[in-house]
Structure formats: C-alpha cells, structure tokens
Design goal:
The chain is α+β, with helices and mostly antiparallel strands. The chain has 3 helices and 9 strands, in the order ββββββαβββαα. The strands form 3 sheets. Strands 6-4-8-7 form a 4-stranded mixed sheet, with helices on both faces. It has a 3-stranded antiparallel sheet with strand order 1-2-3, with no helix packed on it. It is elongated, with a radius of gyration of 19 Å.
C-alpha cells in the first residue's frame, strides 16, 4: 500500500510501538494497516467421502476447487457454505478448517475448509460453473490446476488423509 485509502496522500513508514514499521499518512495523521480481500476455498467431498468435487469456470479448461469472496458482514464459514450452495446447488456440512494462504496477485487471503456434500447431484450448478465433476483422490491430484492455490489446498488435505489413514483427518 503506497497511498492513503482515505485522502490519497503518499504514505511513509513510521515506527509504531509493538508493531514495528507501519505505513503512516502524514495528512490524516493515522497509521494505515494494509487492506486486502478475503475469500474462501473448499475441498468438497461426496457423501461417502471418497471423491472430490472439482469445477471449471469462466471458459477456462482448468479444474479448481469451489471458492468465492466473503461478503461484507459475513464470516468465512457462512461464505463457504453459501458459495457451495450458489455455485453447485448442493447442501453441504463443514467438517473442518484446513489452512489459509495469501494470494499476492489479487491481494487476497483465502481460508480453506473441507465440506461433505449431501449428494453427488451436479444438475443445479449456476452460470459461473462451466463444468463440475467428482474425482477420486488420485484423479483429483492429477487434474487440479497446477501451481495454483487450489492445488496447494487440495494437496494439503490429501496429504493429511494419507498420513492419518483416515477418510476424515479433521
């Protein structure tokens, strides 16, 4: 962040006790902590927890996880449930939080969760989803978009499954 989000003045670094160097606006006379977007990403399992849902969107032939931005006034858990329902049209139950990662390209922090879908019915996807499919764990590892946050989140979850030997490593 180079400029104040309130007045547009160029920010300067100033020391703040307990925080270190923080961007400071000399016009507003306030410290400005970085602002970023927040989003969620979900590993969605089928009811028997042996397949993972991957989707393709926006004309791209790349398999990714269901994901979306958190709306104002919404928490991450609600956003993740809402995104699954909006994009796939399936009720799902959260199993656990997996991890978070920062995505510099869009200045976004993403929170990843694991959900179990109530059914494998993919007949209610919305216009944002070009294609949706259920993949075995091995297939999902192979077809997920390479070098992506979706791949990082998926591999993290699958590694937990393999390391614990449990269907539900949460």
């Amino acid at each position: 962040m180079d400029y104040c989000m309130e007045c547009g003045t160029k920010l300067e670094e100033r020391f703040l006790e307990g925080e270190g160097n923080v961007p400071y606006c000399p016009t507003c006379q306030q410290f400005r902590f970085p602002v970023f977007s927040t989003a969620v990403s979900m590993v969605v399992l089928n009811p028997t927890m042996d397949k993972i849902l991957l989707i393709q969107q926006y004309g791209q032939p790349l398999n990714v996880l269901v994901a979306g931005y958190i709306s104002k006034g919404e928490n991450a858990e609600h956003a993740s449930h809402r995104e699954i329902m909006e994009e796939i049209g399936i009720e799902a139950k959260m199993l656990c939080y997996n991890k978070s990662e920062y995505y510099p390209r869009t200045n976004t922090i993403l929170f990843n969760y694991t959900y179990v879908a109530a059914s494998e019915d993919l007949n209610h996807t919305n216009r944002e989803v070009d294609k949706a499919g259920w993949y075995s764990f091995g297939e999902a590892r192979q077809v997920i978009k390479k070098n992506s946050l979706a791949e990082n989140f998926l591999r993290y979850y699958l590694d937990k499954v393999e390391n614990t030997g449990k269907k539900n490593p949460c």
